[in-house]
Design brief:
By secondary structure, this protein is an alpha+beta fold. Helix content is 52%, strand content 23%. It has a five-stranded mixed β-sheet with strand order 3-11-10-5-8, with no helix packed on it.
């Protein structure tokens, strides 16, 4: 018995539908692939374009930085103020570092910033011209004064020599008076204190038994010295010449001969010109003193007023 024509037509229709669906799916996949490919190309083009913008911007900033350095150098030579330019230099370097992040690059922002820098450079050109003119005027004035002073040098020489001699004698007298006012630390001794507070003398001590040192001396009589509160400093120098100090235990810095010096300990006393005794007790907080000869220096009112020593074995 032959199959019915209607069933054969249905099967053929179903097969056609399936084939059309597969073709449609392939076309759809091809479309998505093409779209993704085009988006990738667009993205690459965008990144390349932004990279070119970043490089161009960096080149401009490098040029501005070089010009700014020249402006700073010249204005400084001419005696102008460069504080504001140094701040601009710091901001410029920050802008250059931020260019490393291409994704966050904002062309409009950097374009505006570059205009500001270029405007500043133009302003500084005007300032440099003004400073050059001012310096030219000062140079001319100095030249005129020099020529006028040439005729007076002969007359002033004798007076100058007299003033120099008088000033020299005056300085010598002042130095003698100042030295006479200085205190003197007499009979300096350094004793050892152990952990129980027992005191030993002799000037030579074993390191393992030396917890603290007691520096003692008397202030010599000086009728010229003012009887008031005075600060006395001691410096303990270890065998290498380094100052034994610890800011946590009272060490600090004072001025001597115009320079800052670290002191080991300081003590305020009321000087009464009675040969009073002054005692310093200093410990290293559990840290041992180095073996060898230690020097103790005493200072007051800008003078070194005495020196002693002790030895650690």
């Amino acid at each position: 018995m032959e199959p019915r024509p209607e069933k054969r037509n249905n099967g053929r229709t179903y097969l056609i539908v399936v084939l059309l669906a597969l073709v449609g799916l392939n076309v759809l996949q091809l479309y998505f692939w093409y779209q993704e490919r085009e988006m990738g190309k667009t993205k690459d083009v965008t990144i390349a374009a932004k990279t070119e913008e970043v490089l161009a911007t960096k080149s401009k900033l490098d040029s501005i930085s070089a010009q700014l350095d020249l402006k700073i150098t010249e204005i400084q030579k001419l005696g102008g103020n460069i504080d504001s330019l140094l701040k601009v230099k710091d901001q410029l370097e920050l802008d250059k570092r931020n260019l490393r992040n291409v994704n966050n690059f904002d062309d409009r922002k950097y374009t505006a910033r570059i205009r500001e820098y270029e405007s500043l450079l133009a302003q500084k050109d005007s300032e440099i011209l003004r400073l050059r003119e001012e310096n030219g005027i000062l140079t001319a004035q100095n030249k005129t004064l020099t020529e006028e002073n040439t005729g007076l040098r002969g007359e002033k020489q004798a007076l100058s020599d007299s003033v120099i001699n008088y000033s020299s004698r005056n300085r010598e007298l002042e130095q003698k008076v100042t030295l006479a006012l200085a205190l003197r630390a007499e009979n300096i001794s350094v004793n050892a204190l152990n952990s129980r507070g027992k005191e030993n003398d002799g000037g030579s001590y074993k390191a393992k038994r030396l917890e603290k040192v007691k520096v003692s001396f008397r202030l010599g009589e000086n009728a010229l010295a003012q009887q008031n509160e005075k600060t006395v400093y001691i410096r303990i120098l270890d065998p290498t010449g380094a100052v034994v100090s610890d800011m946590a235990t009272g060490s600090g810095e004072f001025t001597y001969n115009g320079k800052g010096m670290v002191y080991t300990a300081a003590h305020s006393i009321q000087f009464n010109n009675s040969r009073q005794q002054v005692d310093f007790v200093y410990g290293r907080g559990g840290q041992r003193f180095s073996e060898g000869r230690h020097v103790v220096e005493v200072y007051a009112e800008g003078f070194k007023i005495g020196e002693g020593e002790f030895t650690v074995k």
